[in-house]
Amino acid sequence: MDELALVARIRKRSRSRLLGDDCAVLSPKPGEDLLVTTDLFLEGTHFTKDTSASEAGRKCLARGLSDIAAMGGIPRWCFVSLALASKSPTRWLDDFYKGLTTLAKHHKVALAGGDLTRAKTTAADIIVLGAVPKGKALTRSGARRGDAIYVSGLLGRAAASDYKDIPEPRLALGRFLREKLHATACMDLSDGLSLDLHRLCLESKLAASIHRLLPISPGASLLDAVHGGEDYELLFTVAPDTKVPATHQGLHLTQIGTITTGRPGDLTFFGRPLKPAGWDPFRSTRAR
Amino acid sequence: MDELALVARIRKRSRSRLLGDDCAVLSPKPGEDLLVTTDLFLEGTHFTKDTSASEAGRKCLARGLSDIAAMGGIPRWCFVSLALASKSPTRWLDDFYKGLTTLAKHHKVALAGGDLTRAKTTAADIIVLGAVPKGKALTRSGARRGDAIYVSGLLGRAAASDYKDIPEPRLALGRFLREKLHATACMDLSDGLSLDLHRLCLESKLAASIHRLLPISPGASLLDAVHGGEDYELLFTVAPDTKVPATHQGLHLTQIGTITTGRPGDLTFFGRPLKPAGWDPFRSTRAR
Questions:
Q1: Cβ contacts of residue B103 below 8 Å, gap of 6+?
Q2: How far is CA A160 from the centre of its chain?
Q3: Rounded mean pLDDT of chain B?
Q4: Which of A214, A282, B27, B247 is 20 to 30 A from B160 in CA distance terms?
């Protein structure tokens, strides 16, 4: 099967008429800002040879959708650039796009384009475009001194599953945080609580104290919860007087600490300095 | 150097404040359609270990800009997802982004975000977002029977340079084709004239006859001109009575044939059937 035939199969699956040109043509709505995120998804780093093609497709898109959730956005379009190493590309592609488009349909996201080529190792790049009302995107830089720090769900879940877990993008929660709770800052937990909270504090030019019990996933260790990545829960801050419900659509929301003054990015854990030590591809060698 | 430090270097170079969040936040203009293109750029396929990092960066963006040119668009933002294999990532990254941002500045494109990780083989994905007035994008599907088929520049130039050539995206020409010549269809020549013209005809549900001398690049063979890829010139069609100038800003515009009825996608070359045989990653093994 050649490239034209493979692309024809993808077009059929995506029910998209957009894949035939050099670019996709999209119509953003007036009054909205456009959100754009790109995430690499590499064999040997983000999935393994044991990951089924369908799981890989779902996980690939989930990572991108999680970034849109973190900004309080509504996902609209996705693009997948795929360098394929499979010896049976037709079967693998079919299953990969099946996993991806099932999740896409669930969140009303259109597969609007992409690229397809061959390589020695399978590598994908997922691009998701979304929208928020103009000027309303949640960012990492808006936390203020005294803000309460929250996480959704349970921490260390992915680490405890040896990163086989397929995350659920917290889109409904992200929107709730933007519209109802007016969260001051938000990001998704992709690289581990310690590293991600460090980043949020750096952007907000403040420090953070973790001084409450963490919602640790069954089977996960404290280290998994503090440093384990890929949970794709939301980490957010709200003004101190904000009434945060205990759950949103069944998902637990747990205060874990407070934004403080101090050297930007500094973290303490029950009074002691906490060094950010999550996932860093330029330091770690662990395959995820 | 860790990921945070590497990202800090990129932010400094891009002079972008957009790289700190999970998504970039962009403001498309009302009355414009948004163009989106993604292109993989892989070591061993699109560049080699001999390609300098600076050339790789320039070529990577040039591919994306060429897609915007093909739609008659104005490029606005770019994103680069990069999986880096270099043993000296700081130096390589510096040079790669220097090559890329030099070209970006020339075309007033902002580096708005991306992703960065490590891998065994260097792989990049370039995403370019651009704009056209609503409903005015040039596509592959608008060619009509009797339209004249043109190409810009010289064919086979990349093949003759053993694909070391760094293409110049034809952005000014694309805009001219949309605004002044009202081209009926347009695409860029990335995979070779025969395969790309075949695709244009498929999308337009028509056939094509090449019956004029091709503008062949010095040093290139006829095969290079017909089947060689990566020239990144524009292939376009115009209504038969259109007055096409011989050059646009010094770039030659040459009629090579006519759109005809026939089985969609069929090509003839001076009266004989021409099989599309350009670059197909799922058939060819040639490294480019």
A1: B57, B58, B61, B62, B65
A2: 18
A3: 90
A4: B247
Interface of A with B in 224-243 (CB under 8 A): none
Instruction: Indicate left, alpha or beta for A14 from its phi (over 0: left) and psi (-120 to 50: alpha).
Output: alpha
Residues 186-205 of B with CB under 8 A from A: 187-188, 199, 203
pLDDT, tens digit, for every residue of B184-237?
999 999 989 999 999 999 999 999 999 999 999 999 999 999 999 899 999 999
SS3 track for B212-256: CCCCECCCCCHHHHHHCCCCCCEEEEECCCCCCCCEECCEEEEEE
Dihedral (Cα; B7, A67, A90, B120), 10-degree rounding: 20
Write out the E strands in B137-206. Answer: 148-152, 185-188
ipTM of the predicted structure? 0.88
Q: How distant, in Å, are the alpha carbons of A138, A139, A200, A206, A249 from that of B21?
A: 9, 6, 9, 16, 26
Please, where are the H alpha helices in A107-238? 157-160, 171-179, 193-204, 222-227
DSSP A200-247: HHHHHT-EEEE-S---BPTT--HHHHHH------EEEEE-TT----SE
The token pair at B134 is 């609503």
Question: What residues pair up with B274 in beta bridges, in sequence order?
Answer: B267
pTM reported for the whole predicted model? 0.90
Radius of gyration of chain A (CA): 19
Q: Which amino acid is at A7?
A: V
The reply to whether B264 touches chain A by the CB within 8 Å rule is no
Dist CA B69 CA A46 (whole Å):
34
| Cβ–Cβ gap A28/B39 under 8 Å | no
Q: Return the percent helix, strand and coil in chain A, to nearest 5.
A: 25, 30, 45
Min mean pLDDT across A43-47, A83-87, B27-31 is at: A83-87
Q: Which residues of A touch B25 (CB under 8 A)?
A: 33-35, 71, 132, 137, 139
- Structure tokens of B108? 């007033």
Please provide the DSSP assignment of B74-126 as one string. Answer: EEEEEEEEEEE--SSHHHHHHHHHHHHHHHHHHTT-EEEEEEEEE-SS-EEEE
